[in-house]
Amino acid sequence: MTDPFNPYLPEVATILETVQETHNIKTFRVRFDDEAKMKAFKFEPGQVGQLSAPGIGESTFVINSPPTRMDYLQFSVMRAGEVTAKLHTLTAGDKVGVRAPLGNAFPVADMKGKDIVFVGGGIGMAPLRTLFLYMLDNRADFGKIRLLYGARSPLDMAFSAELPEWTGRSDIETTLTIDREAEGWEHKVGLIPNVLLEMAPKPENCVAITCGPPIMIKFTLEALKKLGFADEQIVTTLEKRMKCGIGICGRCNIGTSYVCVDGPVYTYAQLKQLPNEL
Amino acid sequence: MAAVKYIPREKLPEWLKALAAQSRVLVPVEEGGSVVFRQYDPARAPVFGSDATAPPKGAVFPASQELFSYAYGKAGEENAPTLKLDPKTEATPTVVFGSKPCGARGFLIFDRVYMGKKFPDPYYIAAREATVFVTMACATVENTCFCHWVGSGPADAAGSDVLLTPVEGGYTVEAVSEKGAKFLDNPALTDGAAKAAEAEAVKKASREALGEAPDIATSPAALLSLFDDMEFWRDQSDKCVSCGACTYLCPTCYCFSITDEGTGTAGRRMRSWDACMHFQFTLEASGHNPRPTKAHRLKNRVGHKFSYYPTLHDGLIACCGCGRCVKSCPVSVDIREIVQNAVAKAKG
């Protein structure tokens, strides 16, 4: 008899490369050691994984590389607690455990043929990156694509190595912003919701996808409503403390919805149906 | 269903010894002023009269269990880098003997979650399949009992494999499941037809002793409608000291934590009971906590059992009405009052 699938058992993976994105964000590019499993691995943009630092524990991160680029799975980790502090000590060649894919995905099929506005703040850019790159790799399937990405300062901006490409491409419109003036900064200065209002994307046949710190989300939602976006046209992805990642252990639920399996991706319309416990 | 059998009280040790020769047998025994389930020892008399202080939850869902062990080496170190993971899902064949119906019924609540289609839990399933419940119907009830509120009762055999009922001189024995029928093949058990009517009378009397159950059918919607009424929840949780005894003693509380134990190079990943009544349960690394006060946490505990779970699982209430949380709460928080208050308040 073969052993039944064990959802708690991580795949052993090797870190191929790391990128120190900011003082507290580090990116890990990993591949499963089991090549057959790596080749068979399938996920959709928005799905997450649990990274294990053996001896310390596990935490949940979005897979921020798109399924169209399977050389490695990328996770960007902001140092905040014990697991992330341990992960930050790891380098290329080190082993991690990976449990993935977990959770739901962005409703990509519903977005086809539509204009897209990404609004990302800080580490909230990570989940957007997956979908953004997926869309760039399937560019013809989508209408106008706009990205508004903001951080506190230029030094807090992750994925800086990719920003010249994103701002330079003529088939997308990328706007970068920081909270306060900084020397040498050539892009926008201002809070994300205010810059979004200036950009004034039209809601007709458009989907807005946003992720960032709670206060940014709050005012971004207000801005999108002001611009005329309906609740169904706004998509976000949530973060909760998780352990099992498979809808059992009981801590990430918002009423009847378990963020680890029913989320992390929700439309604003869906969120409004849930009890208020973010 | 097989015919009713009978075992005289003095023959019980004979049956228990026969069972213990084949399986781990857990029985309720007195320990430190409490009644808890421990491995059968002929020298310690089981306590079948009153309900156990703690349910037999650990028989299937240990308070702490190893998910897998690991051996780890970091890049640049000797024999490195490595990560080896070794899972252990085997379970010990176990008989839980003498639990009250509420203790066995708790696992029906677990089953829906741990034996789901998408992510069946191999540890739970192995233990569940390896466990047989020989349950004791209640001849007496306590004032904290409310199993009849939640679709159960003092002779509820749901979740059990064999049902014993106390009668004069001994117990009637009925097989409830196929798994249970196999356990009745023991010379200590004789034909119980003559005792069947008495057993039925015992079951009826204890059910009648519980009285009428209030109508709480509207609890799922009622609790949801009070979600933002924090004044209500502060009132209900005012006394709570966040000790978590209610969750620890609850046959249906199935939440857990996962933690790593060991050194940087070797150790094990553990799953342990956790409690939604603790601040740390939902505390995020950023410092944000979606359930920051005991009012939020009690709301989740009651809401989960009487609203969210039944909404997700065909109306099944995630409470077996055993009353342990009521009986063992150091400050007398009473979940029955909270549910009734919510139902009444939502009616307006």
Automatic annotation (TrEMBL), chain A:
Binds 1 [2Fe-2S] cluster per subunit. SUPFAM superfamilies: Ferredoxin reductase-like, C-terminal NADP-linked domain, Riboflavin synthase domain-like. Its cofactor is [2Fe-2S] cluster. Residues 8-108 form the FAD-binding FR-type domain. One of its GO terms (molecular function) is metal ion binding. Gene3D superfamilies: Dihydroorotate dehydrogenase, electron transfer subunit, Nucleotide-binding domain of ferredoxin-NADP reductase (FNR) module, Translation factors. The keyword Repeat does not apply. One of its GO terms (biological process) is pyrimidine nucleotide biosynthetic process. Keywords: 2Fe-2S, Electron transport, FAD, Flavoprotein, Iron, Iron-sulfur, Metal-binding, Transport. Pfam families: DHODB_Fe-S_bind, NAD_binding_1. InterPro entries: Cyt_c3_hydrogenase_gsu, Dihydroorotate_DH_ele_sf, Dihydroorotate_DH_Fe-S-bd, FAD-bd_FR_type, FNR_nucleotide-bd, OxRdtase_FAD/NAD-bd, PyrK_electron_transfer, Riboflavin_synthase-like_b-brl. Signal peptide: none annotated. [2Fe-2S] cluster binds at C244, C249, C252, C260. The keyword Flavoprotein applies. It comes from the Bacteria. This is 2-polyprenylphenol hydroxylase-like oxidoreductase. It comes from Solidesulfovibrio magneticus str. Maddingley MBC34.
UniProtKB/TrEMBL annotation, chain B:
Residues 230-261, 308-341 form the 4Fe-4S ferredoxin-type domain. The keyword Nucleotide-binding does not apply. InterPro entries: 4Fe4S_Fe-S-bd, 4Fe4S_Fe_S_CS, Helical_ferredxn. PANTHER family: ANAEROBIC SULFITE REDUCTASE SUBUNIT A (PTHR40447). It comes from Solidesulfovibrio magneticus str. Maddingley MBC34. This is 4Fe-4S ferredoxin-type domain-containing protein. Keywords: Iron, Iron-sulfur, Metal-binding. Signal peptide: none annotated. GO terms for molecular function: iron-sulfur cluster binding; metal ion binding. Transmembrane segments: none annotated.
